[in-house]
Structure formats: C-alpha cells, structure tokens
Amino acid sequence: MSAVVCTLFEDHYHFGVAALTNSLCLKGFNGDIFAGYKGNLPAWCSESKENSSLKWNGAKTLSVSEGVKVHFLPLETNYHLANYKPDFMLRLWEGPAKEATEMFYFDPDIIVKENWAVFMKWVKCGVTLCEDVNSPLAMHHPRRFEWRKFFKTAGIDLQFKEAVYANSGFIGISFMNKSFLNTWVKTQDTIASVIGGLERSPFSGNGFLPEEHRGDYAPFSKTDQDALNCAVEAWIGNVSFIGKEGMALKSGPNLMSHALGKPKPWHWKPLKQAVLGQPPRLMVRDYWEHANGFLLSQPTILVTQRKVTIKIAALIGRFYRRR
Prior knowledge:
By secondary structure, the protein is an alpha/beta fold. It has helices at residues 14-26, 85-94, 116-122, 142-153, 179-195, 224-234, 270-275, 282-290, 300-317, and strands at 3-10, 31-38, 49-50, 60-63, 68-74, 102-106, 110-112, 127-131, 166-174, 239-242, 256-258.
C-alpha cells in the first residue's frame, strides 16, 4: 500500500463522495479510498461487499476501477464529523491503512482538478494545506492572541509561523509527519470544553455552537479549523501552504475546487439562483462534470439537464447578477 485517500460523510454528502472519487480516478489516483460515514449507505453503493479483512466492524468495499477501491467504514463516534478528521486518519493508520506511506483527507464537497502526481510531489514538502477564504490572520490578530493565551494555560506553546489561515477541508501527510495528527487531536481535545464538546460545530443542526462561541472574532468558532491552525503553530515540523487558488477560492492554478457554504452543488438550482442574481459557481460546474463517471450517483437525465441549465444560468449571469 502506498498513498491512500480518506473522507467523511453523512446524509446527502454521499453525492460529493461519488464525485470526489470520479475526479480522483480521472486524475490518475490509484489505490484505496476510505470513506467513514454515519447513517445508511446510498443506493449507488449497493454493489459493495462486506470486507472482514479490514478488521473494521461493518466495513464494505466497492471496486470502482481496476486500481481504485472505496472502503465504506461505519462510525459510532458522537463527534461532529468536522471534528473527527485527525482521529479518523490516525485510526486508519493504526488499522486498515497501516501500510500507507502517505494519507490525504478531502472533504466530500471537493473535486480534484490537478494530476495526482502533483499531490504526491507536494506532500514531500511537508504537511500540505490550502489557504482558507478567511485568511490571512496576522501575528497579533485578536484570534491568534486568544489562541496563544488559551493554550498557554494548558501548557501548549504556540509559535507564530506565518499569517496564512488554513482550510481544514484538505490535508496531506506522509508517514514521517504523522505526529502532526496527534498534535491536531490534542488541540481539538483542549478546546472541547470551551465549545461545549466535539459534537458541536459551526454548522447548523443539533450540534450548533453556543451563541457566545459564534462569530468571526470568537477564537474557536471554526472548531476543527481553528484547532488545525493552532496545531500548525504547536507542531515542530514543515508545513507547505498553497494559496486560495489551490481550492479555487480565487483565480489561479487550481489543485481542486471546494464548494464552501450552501447550497451544495448537488442542491444548487441553476436557473433559480440565476434569477436571484447568483450565476453558477465554478464548484457547481465541476461537481456536475464529475457527478457520474466511474460511479453513477445521479440519474443520467438529471446530469444532462443540470449541464444545460448551468450554461443558460451562466448566460443570464453575464447580464444580471447581485452586486
């Protein structure tokens, strides 16, 4: 086993998992994809087979192509999945992916756009991260100041490295840098009592953050993402950042496109949004280009219709859009 990919999903995010997998296959990835999930598997996974060799209760494996398999791993954690990323990666490295030389995590609303060889070269530079849309946070930004003060009381020393604030939707790590994940787990566990537990997140739902911990200036309002950025400052090792263009959050050479916010691309109604002054984003186009392929997660007629309406909506957007 060499490099592996992993992701986490529940509910409708399975549509993103299929598109992510299709994009990985098209860009030259060969290997195992580990998909941790809560709830039930969707219909497009119906041909997956139970796989006891993974030593993971309830594991099933779906062959996607000659060189790619997706392993579906049911989860019993009460953590919000946004906060389970480093724990999941460590559990994989201790179990079904123990022979992996590199591990890459992708959120299920990401489409890979660059050849896989680029990711493999990048991970040799250190822990790989992309800049978030809310970056930068300067050295003496109020949030960074609060991070240092809070973690100092917990005996964790944060050392400012650079102003880039990373997005937690993607991370690539070689086995030699696996200790970064332990640091990330430690920073998350440390902030757990502050945010009301790791079952809480900035996303709406039953686990929504308490009022006093929301907002752009609350130090841990992004939970896993804030903990990730604190881990960057607590960990001794090299971190390799690529700017916002890496996730298509600004123009430039895109490694991937990340569909931040809502509605997600599979829920995006192109004509309705165009009438509201919102032309289709690049992420929406990328999703529907990869919704079907090696895996078929959407009705073929729906994919065709969406591609047509996206073109019409883009034309409308040339003349009418929200300012």
